[in-house]
Design brief:
Helix content: 25-40%
CATH superfamily: Thiolase/Chalcone synthase
Number of helices: 13
Shape: globular
Strand order of the largest sheet: 3-2-4-7-1-8-11-10-9
CATH topology: Peroxisomal Thiolase, Chain A, domain 1
Order of helices and strands: EHEHHEHEHHHHEEEEHEHHHHEE
């Protein structure tokens, strides 16, 4: 049965990019202001806050807790909890915020994600340190090194081509041109993707998402109170979380991410729908191969058909199942703690038909948001939203 006990009544974000001119707290304040300004009938009083950030593991500042962000937002005194769950930190914070509201403990909850990725260089091992594990099993295992074997295996088993991978980047960079919040706002061609520098075969530079600074926020309340704040609430229809083994040698497959399949099954079951009911999806495209795996694992296409579906335009804005209308991680960027909440914001706008030039056709009234990440991409979160209670 459909859940629909919690509603999103406001959502906003700041422009993603290399934000050297903004502090961590300034980015958070910008996203908070945007979310509150989007509430149609005035900003509600916030009862509690959930903060998504990887600042602890990325920067070695584990003392950063629940007081830092509320203080910057003028909300000192309210209950606040930090959520850190790798790349799905923001989407998991959203899920937790929804459960807090559904529990009846708090009526209005702010879920905010904020991340500073560019103030240190990749040579300083920002992400490598965050994902550090066994000293030998994942030695040298950067993110491209993790996903490249999935690309080569997918190519081997299903005939997926570099052009199919490149088509994902072309589509998402096109969508990013229509998104004023995207880090990259320029078109790319298949030829440009295929001639960009090799990072880890077969993945090239334009197959990879950037490191990005950014922040995003949403305001949650009970379904019963939602109409106090807006005539167009978006409801939480379902969610799912799942895990998988953290190391490559433990994987059961290299042509899919089982955690995504399991998380989506749980979300679909909670919402009482299936993949065919989803009108639009914001999925985790840290690399072009990842989006191809995602659309298969989420049930939008058959296993092995993700490459042709991408090349043939099935996931375009006017395609059968539009994927990443915001530009995705490839163009919009991937400020880890903020990523999932920024995706939720896009789903909110799409369901309310407020996405401007990148608006897709809404038929069934459902949007899906998805992240996968952590060591070995062993954590996946899927959230389902609907505009129909």
């Amino acid at each position: 049965m459909s859940w629909n006990k919690v509603a999103v009544v406001g959502a906003g974000l700041i422009k993603m990019g290399e934000l050297f001119d903004q502090s961590y707290e300034q980015m958070a304040a910008g996203a908070f202001a945007a979310a509150m300004a989007s509430v149609d009938r005035g900003a509600p009083e916030i009862d509690a806050c959930i903060v998504a950030t990887q600042r602890g593991s990325l920067w070695g500042q584990e003392g950063i807790g629940g007081n830092t962000v509320p203080s910057a937002l003028g909300l000192s005194g309210i209950p606040c909890t930090r959520v850190e769950n790798a790349c799905p930190s923001g989407s998991d914070a959203f899920r937790i915020g929804a459960m807090v509201v559904a529990s009846g403990v708090h009526d209005v909850v702010l879920v905010i994600g904020v991340e500073k990725m560019r103030d240190k260089s990749t040579q300083e091992g920002l992400l490598a340190r965050a994902a550090a594990g066994h000293p030998l099993y994942n030695r040298g295992e950067t993110a491209p090194v993790l996903f490249a074997p999935f690309a080569t295996r997918h190519m081997h088993e299903f005939g997926t081509t570099p052009e199919m991978l490149a088509s994902v980047a072309v589509k998402n960079h096109h969508n990013g041109c229509l998104d004023p919040y995207a880090h990259f706002q320029s078109e790319v061609t298949v030829e440009q993707v295929l001639s960009s520098p090799l990072v880890c075969s077969p993945l090239r530079l334009l197959d990879c998402c950037p490191q990005t600074d950014g922040a995003a926020a949403v305001v949650l309340t009970t379904a019963e109170r939602a109409t106090e704040f807006t005539d167009k609430p978006v409801y939480v229809a379902g969610f799912g979380v799942a895990t998988d083994h953290p190391y490559l040698h433990e994987k059961s497959t290299y042509v899919g991410l089982p955690a995504t399949t399991l998380a989506s099954t749980r979300a679909y079951d909670m919402a009482g729908i299936g993949p065919a009911d989803v009108d639009v999806a914001e999925v985790h495209d840290c690399f072009t191969i990842t989006e191809i795996l995602d659309i298969e694992d989420l049930g939008f296409v058959e296993k092995g058909k993700g490459g042709p579906a991408s090349l043939e335009g099935e996931t375009a804005l006017d395609g059968r199942i539009p994927v990443n209308p915001s530009g995705g991680l490839l163009a919009k960027g991937h400020p880890i703690g903020a990523t999932g909440i920024a995706q939720i914001t896009e789903c909110f706008w799409q369901l309310r038909e407020e996405a401007g030039d990148r608006q897709v056709t809404i038929r069934n009234g459902f949007a899906l948001q998805h992240n996968v990440g952590g060591r070995g991409s062993g954590v996946s979160v899927v959230n389902l939203l609907t505009r129909d209670r």
